[in-house]
Specification:
Layout: H1 2-29, H2 36-57, H3 60-65, H4 67-77, E1 87-90, E2 93-99, E3 102-104, H5 106-124, H6 132-152, H7 156-173, H8 177-196, H9 199-209, H10 220-232, H11 257-289, H12 294-318, H13 336-354
Antiparallel strand pairs: 1-2, 2-3
Helix pairs in contact: 1-2, 1-11, 1-13, 2-13, 4-5, 5-6, 5-7, 5-12, 5-13, 6-7, 6-8, 7-8, 7-12, 10-11, 11-12, 11-13, 12-13
Length: about 350
Amino acid sequence: YYVLAVIVALFVMLGLVMVLSASASTEAAEGNGAYNVFNRQVMWAVVGLIGLWLAQRVNLAVIRKLAIPLLMLCAAAMALPVVPGLGTTVNDARAWVNVGPFSVQPSEFLKLAVIIFAADFLMRREEVLFDVRRGLRPVIGLAVAASGACLAQGDLGSAIVMCAIVLTVAFIGGVPLSPMILTAIAAAGVALGFVFSSEYRYDRFTAFLDITGHRDELSYQTYQGFLSIADGGLTGSGVGAGNGKLGYLPLAHSDFIFAVIADELGFVGSVAVVGGFMLLVWFGIQAALAAPDRFGMLLAGGIATWLGVQAVINLGGVTGLMPVTGLTLPFFSAGGSSLFVSMTAAGLLLNVARRAR
């Protein structure tokens, strides 16, 4: 419990520092004020802290009762980005909703709602998990529906995370492995088809295969990320002293904040962050194994999987090991929806760990 709490606290505090460092110069140059992005992130961190505290204290039985209403509410919210005047399109993905001066990403909330619902469903259907109609089909249907909702918005990264969440929670819950493997293979095929269905996504994917060759256009962001990581060396250039975020690295405060971390904190800082995520997943799994009941086990396992998978996809994109998907780095990237939901999920994880046997 205490290790998880310390990791989350350090991640949030370091994330705020790095968001300020990564965004101040570009925001000032655009006339928005150096603290514009940072102030919004601090506000969301405070709201996230409230969410974390409530999630940590509430009885898990109450969370179970909210599983279906939460899923229905978040699923309905996924339709909002297509409403004229509400939705915003970024990089071929219409996945954001304008709420006053803020942009909210409904898929972030859906991730947590899907985990809670899957944990509740697999607890209620424990006796029929091998039954195709009552056990397997609904689980696969949940994975398809959640991922499909994200694909409909053009958000491949979130779709991959949704599928990984449901399949992992199902595996932890005792669903037979073979249909899960077949579902994963089918999902990979759908993902490839989705990539080839858009010229923009196809170009980004092929550019990933030859980053250096496309460094002036399609792979510009990734290549600049490489340069930032290389500039950091062993111990980094110092907080605030990195060069990449000075207009060279697009979205330095968001998707590519790890490149700024590597630039300013060096290899040592990068390893510390990656190691922190590994510890978060490890102790999250330990909390799941020691959970007081089956729901707590599935909930903690799902949250640990989600944070781990999303971190791997983000870091893979920044380091050129995977195509860039636009996923945020939990606790670090600028983005209110991501930070609030990550902190609330961490609160639920701490809730399970606190009640561990």
